[in-house]
Amino acid sequence: MGWSFSIAKVAGISIKVHVTFFLILVLGAVQWGVPYGATGAVFGVILMILLFVCVTLHELGHSIVAQRLGIPVREIVLLPLGGVALLSRNPTKAWHELVIAAAGPLVNVVIAAILFAATGAASALGSLDGQALQQEAPPSLSSLLIWLLQANIFLVLFNLIPAFPLDGGRIFRALLSMVLAPRTATRIAVAIGQAIAILLGVFGVSSGNFSLVLVAIFIFFGAGQENAEGQARTMLITKRVGDAYNRYALTLEIGDRVSKVVDYILTSYQPDFAVVQGSKLLGIVTRDDVLQALASDPRDLFVTGVMRREFLRVAPSLTLDEVREQMAEQKARVAAVYDGEAYLGLVSAEDIAEALAVLAFQQRQDELRKQNPDLAT
């Protein structure tokens, strides 16, 4: 994710902080600094840091379970509204999604249980209102632990709301997928999630709770994005990459120079070019490679000097969705299609997006024909 930097690596998973994360530290400093001065400001910053340690452990719960199920995890990114674990691909089995989604809240349950034991039942449950706690209890170790206990209880309850992209929405979709088609399950879960988001938004506006409005917007659009992703996956699994790669692509040879690639870019829509020797693929030159070469060296270089010699190889039997997942996992936007050892051509993220657009159009046409049989004649 852009505008983020790595702060640690756990179990091979990079943990990153988005630059906007520091806004939450400022909020914590202001919220506690106003009534308690400099000591309160420092206390507020520490609270926010420890809260996001709990959020990180929550995301690690998702991530480590995903890894155990064979799903690579690219990174965890911490944002002001929480954290997100970026999986290289989505779970294909309903029970996989169920246990991955449930692992995060379960971590917070364990943390809450430990804090509950450390603080004592009576004092810990005296107030579940963080604002009231702040007003009544000055900065101290006791108030810090109780505040974190309440925060973890809130994280469990909030994340179990059955609305995408929250864990509860994923758990709900996984349960529905066990008895319904995945696409139908996603549609139902998304509709319910967006309805909940609207209710939260209305309540937030009426009560003057701006934070709740932001959360509602996040849930509403997150659910819509999940619906779009589910539809894309459903369509892309129907086509093989062998049906979508460019069979008529322009190619380069080892004696060609960057100027020739520039001519190709200007006179065609093709962004990526295979450098071949006979039927053998030597490397791939992308538009970005050419622009970088032009910016850094005024000479007309040979394409072999700017081409990428390491590239993703995929079989023509893979679905477009599988290729898309492999591209995401390896952070590649172009792949070489091979039938055994025979090079066939290139497929890019743009090719997959174009195929998705065509498939969506065809699907819409089929739906219209079903609704209006006369259109088929």
Question: Key terms for this structure?
Answer:
4-stranded mixed β-sheet; alpha/beta; 12 helices
Q: Helical amount among residues, as a percent range?
A: 55-70%
Taking pLDDT < 50 over at least 5 consecutive residues as the criterion, the unreliable ranges are 127-135
Main β-sheet, in a few words?
Answer: 4 strands, mixed
Radius of gyration: 26 Å
Overall pLDDT metric: 86
Total of helices: 12
The main sheet orders its strands as 1-2-3-4
Assembly form of the protein: single chain
Class per helix and strand makeup: alpha/beta
Portion in beta strands: 15-25%
Broad shape: globular
Encode the helix/strand succession as letters.
EEHEEHHHHHHHEHEEHEHEEH
Distance between the terminal alpha carbons, to the nearest Å? 49 Å
Topology, pairings included?
Elements: E1 4-10, E2 13-18, H1 22-68, E3 73-79, E4 82-87, H2 94-119, H3 121-124, H4 130-136, H5 141-159, H6 167-177, H7 182-207, H8 210-236, E5 251-253, H9 258-267, E6 272-277, E7 280-286, H10 287-296, E8 312-314, H11 320-330, E9 334-339, E10 342-348, H12 349-371
Parallel strand pairs: 2-3, 5-6, 8-9
Antiparallel strand pairs: 1-2, 3-4, 6-7, 9-10
Give your account of this protein's structure.
With 377 residues, this protein is of the alpha/beta class. 59% of the residues lie in helices and 15% in strands. It has helices at 22-68, 94-119, 121-124, 130-136, 141-159, 167-177, 182-207, 210-236, 258-267, 287-296, 320-330, 349-371, and strands at 4-10, 13-18, 73-79, 82-87, 251-253, 272-277, 280-286, 312-314, 334-339, 342-348. The strands form 3 sheets. The chain has a 4-stranded mixed sheet with strand order 1-2-3-4, covered by helices on one side. Strands 5-6-7 form a 3-stranded mixed sheet.
